[in-house]
Specification:
Chain lengths: ~475, ~450
């Protein structure tokens, strides 16, 4: 029904592409690349009891990169005519001027067809009224879930990103990435003030997302989260054991070591994991994977934004650091192949090493027993985002639903805040991992001003010690 | 540069009876230079443009945007926006802004100097920054990034209700992130310099600030948990100010998401708390003469000596609250107008950071915070961030500290605001910073 062969739906003709790449190489560059992107998106926002707005977006353009040694020139344009592209190629190549210059022919003889992710219902085939109806249902369910709920926001969004990548090595490839997302957020009001609760779901699939998901369930969970926090006590302050629930707990790894395992940060000695390949960096029960091939997950793609197929990369195996994540530039410097982690926010950006779907493999423990075995600490059921300083290893992540653990039992909810730890130490302090693996909610990872969609996942696990940033002293 | 007002007029001419149309067109020319290890690492020179079209009919709005100003795309975008109208719920307050008779400030925010500054000189600036940063101190082991970035931006907002505005700004900055090392330990620091034109940039300052911030954290230990007085460094207080600004957003108030709803006229903080949002101040990095709906920006005093005076509004939230727009509509071309602060500042106090520190017996100078988006909730007021800084003991800076958090609530922090410093600094964000002393903050460490 659709996209059987997206390869044949070229954004630009190969002859045009090779011509532009040849212009880009005229000043003596060693490598030239063109990244073409056609992005269409639609979102609908429900807030304050009404459908507030529907938004449709379109963006089409190309980014041209020219590399010589360690220097890259880059330019982008929304003008995909030959003259527009050649202008961008000239601009990108201006910085890599080498006396000799020259005329190098580019033959796109490495045409690579990689099947895009499977989609059975194109969001663009679904009437807008159907999408809006989902929002109305979510609002209705959330408001009737509890009388303390006084505000509900719901958002539906879908996007289709068709890309085409070609370079002077002769590569020509492309991908067709569809993402669908639904989010509900509630505000509850009580004697202690206001609290918020949120739930979201998103996959690299089409509208069939809603075949297996009831937006009412999402709404209910968001509402309950907000209401539960009305009784929240101030979070504790200081070091203690932390049990992280399954799913979104993957944010912990994204921050604790994910960024630190990106080859560009490693190369600049801005990572605590630099120079540690083959060494023990985590507890022996820890196996951490970054996997761009997980069909349907938020960080999935068939090819990365440099044209390399998405890959499953084992980063830490049984506690030992096995590999970093690589893009073309960093891999080439080390004389190896990219690991398929070269991503960019849009055609207006240079690619760099980014994560895809980062997750901790499950083990054998029983999640309930982990809690029962924890005399006192904190149980984090839902994580917010986080941040890390990869050079020092200090990382934080937020707790948007958390409870005290007292005498082996989950007791009272605690207010929101950040937890802080140090990556290398935290990985060594993981002392038990359960069997209940789950992927978490869709996330956006920010690095150097560029946001890309990422997934993360984890089973229930315990970290012997992290610092809780609460106010209870 | 394309004539944005003409293009907007053209789109308006396709409007139909019974509908109002708002067109926002943005154009930007940007140069980004990154230096690394004594060489040019990357150079990007590019132009981009985009259009956002809002159609309002029968109290409903629809919106669409596109990244091109080609005529067929403009037509398609208008058609999509029009199509989206039917699905919105009618809202008696939903219509476009009308001209409100407020004259925009006369500001020159665009530097001819920047426009004609050769790319070669920009590359030299980044390389010079990298060189100075790497040699600023013997303990600097690397420069993670050294950048020169500039942007020339033009925005036009034109509506069928008679608004017709265009603004132009130029900005440039230098930023360095450095690594300081001692044995196995690494610490980081950043330095920057911002100006409207390249001759205003101070490369020495950017380099030495970065080196100083990084080296003074060497030997940092994890502090014990306690409750202390903190001094927020200008960068940190600017971020805090941005969060406070977001609670004074008229849209949050209307939708029951603001801590300060129904509290206009009340005391919500100490007497040293005076906050204003003033995009007409040309010293502000984000100064602008028109807001996202094309209305004139203006000075809005939000808090005065601890008393809440009012909120920020766009034309919708103003009208619905029984007030009027404060010229605070914010948006890019990809969205409908929201409400937001554009150039926040605290009224400065009388004393320097050193003088503030000299008064503190037991505290921490907070040099950097992390996780603001994950540990701060402006609806509940919870405030908890990762932090790094320097311990203050008996009025002097003592040992550096790291891997700890600071926590309180926004409401409480405003009442614990002990003093505001005189070291006002205009930063490359929508808030200025200065040193801020806040008492009774929970430090979570060992």
């Amino acid at each position: 029904m659709m996209r059987e062969d997206s390869y044949s739906e070229q954004l630009l003709e190969p002859e045009v592409i090779s011509g532009v790449l040849e212009v880009a190489l005229k000043t003596g560059g060693e490598f030239a690349e063109i990244f073409v992107e056609d992005r269409r998106s639609m979102s609908a926002l429900f807030d304050d009891g009404r459908v507030e707005e529907l938004i449709g977006g379109r963006s089409l353009g190309a980014g041209i990169r020219v590399v010589r040694g360690d220097t890259s020139g880059f330019a982008h344009t929304a003008d995909l005519s030959s003259s527009g592209l050649n202008l961008a190629a000239e601009s990108a190549s201006a910085v890599v001027r080498d006396g000799a210059g020259g005329n190098r022919a580019v033959d796109l003889d490495r045409r690579q067809f990689v099947r895009p992710g499977a989609v059975s219902v194109l969001p663009s085939d679904i009437p807008k009224s159907t999408k809006v109806a989902l929002l109305e249902e979510a609002d209705q369910v959330a408001r009737t879930e509890h009388r303390a709920i006084h505000q509900v926001t719901a958002r539906y969004a879908d996007s289709r990103r068709r890309i085409q990548v070609a370079n002077s090595d002769g590569l020509l490839t492309g991908d067709d990435q569809i993402r669908t997302l639904f989010m509900v957020s509630c505000v509850a009001e009580g004697d202690s003030g206001m609290q918020t609760g949120r739930e979201s779901i998103g996959h690299t699939v089409g509208f069939e997302l809603f075949d297996g998901v009831e937006v009412g369930d999402l709404a209910r969970r968001a509402a309950r989260r907000a209401v539960a926090k009305l009784d929240a006590v101030p979070a504790p302050s200081g070091e203690m054991p932390v049990v992280v629930g399954p799913g979104g707990g993957g944010v912990l790894f994204h921050e604790a070591c994910g960024h630190g395992l990106e080859a560009d940060l490693v190369a600049k000695s801005a990572s605590r994991f630099a120079g540690r390949q083959g060494e023990v960096v985590a507890a022996p029960i820890v196996t951490l994977i970054d996997d761009g091939t997980m069909a349907g997950e938020w960080g999935f793609y068939a090819v990365d934004d440099e044209g390399h197929p998405g890959s499953r990369n084992v980063l830490i195996e049984d506690g030992v650091l096995t590999d970093y994540m690589w893009d073309r530039l960093r891999a080439k410097k080390e004389g190896r192949e990219s690991s398929g982690n070269g991503r960019r926010q849009s055609y207006q950006h240079l690619p760099m090493v980014r994560m895809t779907n980062t997750y901790l493999e499950g083990r054998e423990a029983d999640p309930d027993e982990i809690i029962a075995d924890t005399a006192h600490g904190v149980y984090v059921a839902q994580l917010g985002g986080g941040q890390v300083n990869t050079a020092t290893g200090d990382f934080v992540f937020g707790m948007t639903e958390a409870y005290l653990i007292e005498n082996g039992r989950v007791t009272v909810p605690i207010r929101e805040g950040n937890l802080i730890g140090n990556g290398p130490q935290a990985l060594l302090d993981i002392d038990v991992i359960a069997s209940d693996f789950m992927m978490g909610s869709p996330g956006t990872c920010g690095k150097d001003g560029q946001g890309v969609p990422v997934g993360d996942g984890t089973p229930t696990l315990r970290v012997k010690s992290l610092t809780i940033g609460g106010t209870a002293t | 540069m394309p004539e944005l007002l003409d293009i907007a007029d053209r789109v308006l001419s396709w409007g139909e009876d019974g509908e109002e149309v708002e067109v926002v067109i943005a154009y930007e020319r940007e140069t980004e230079v990154r230096a690394y290890a004594g060489e040019l690492e990357a150079l990007t020179v590019a132009e981009s443009q985009g259009i956002g079209i809002r159609v309002v009919r029968d109290f409903r709005q629809g919106f669409a945007h596109a990244g091109s100003l080609d005529e067929p795309v403009l037509f398609e975008t208008l058609r999509e926006a029009r199509d989206n109208v039917a699905f919105a719920t009618p809202d008696e307050w939903c219509f476009l802004a009308d001209p409100d008779g407020v004259e925009p400030a006369r500001l020159e925010l665009c530097s001819e100097n920047l426009i004609s500054y050769p790319t070669k000189s920009k590359v030299s600036a980044a390389l010079e920054l990298e060189r100075l940063a790497s040699t600023a101190d013997s303990r600097i082991v690397g420069v993670e990034s050294a950048e020169y970035v500039d942007s020339l931006a033009e925005t036009a907002v034109v509506t069928s209700t008679g608004i017709r505005s265009s603004t132009r700004q130029s900005n440039c900055y230098l930023a360095a992130h450095v690594l300081a090392g001692a044995g196995e330990e690494t610490q980081t620091g950043f330095g920057y310099s911002v100006a409207r034109s390249p001759d205003g940039l101070d490369v020495d300052r950017a380099a030495t600030d970065a080196a100083e911030r990084a080296t003074r954290l060497l030997g940092a230990v994890k502090p014990g948990s306690s409750r202390l007085t903190v001094v927020l460094d200008p960068w940190v207080s600017a971020q805090f100010l941005g969060i406070v600004g977001s609670t004074l957003n008229g849209e949050s108030v209307l939708k029951g998401r603001s801590l300060f709803a129904d509290r206009v006229g009340e005391i919500v903080g100490t007497p040293c708390l005076t906050i204003m949002d003033d995009p007409t101040n040309p010293a502000a990095f984000t100064a602008t003469t028109s807001d996202g709906e094309g209305l004139a920006t203006r000075q809005n005093i939000l808090l005065e000596e601890g008393r809440l005076l009012g909120f920020l509004h766009n034309s919708y939230t103003g009208r619905r609250s029984g007030q009027s727009s404060t010229g605070s509509a914010v948006r890019g071309y990809m969205s409908t107008p929201g409400v937001g602060a554009q150039a926040l500042s605290f009224l400065p106090g009388l004393r320097s950071q050193a003088e503030l520190i000299a008064e503190i017996d037991d505290g921490v100078l907070i040099q950097g915070v992390s996780g603001l988006h994950s540990g701060v909730n402006p609806v509940s007021g919870d405030f908890s961030t990762g932090a790094e800084g320097i311990r203050i003991r008996k009025g002097s800076l003592a040992e550096p500290v790291r891997e700890f958090t600071i926590a309180s609530t926004i409401q409480k922090m405003l009442f614990d605001l002990l003093e505001v410093g005189n070291d006002l600094e205009w930063l490359p964000m929508n808030a200025s910073g200065l040193s801020l002393v806040v008492g009774d903050v929970t430090i979570s460490g060992a």
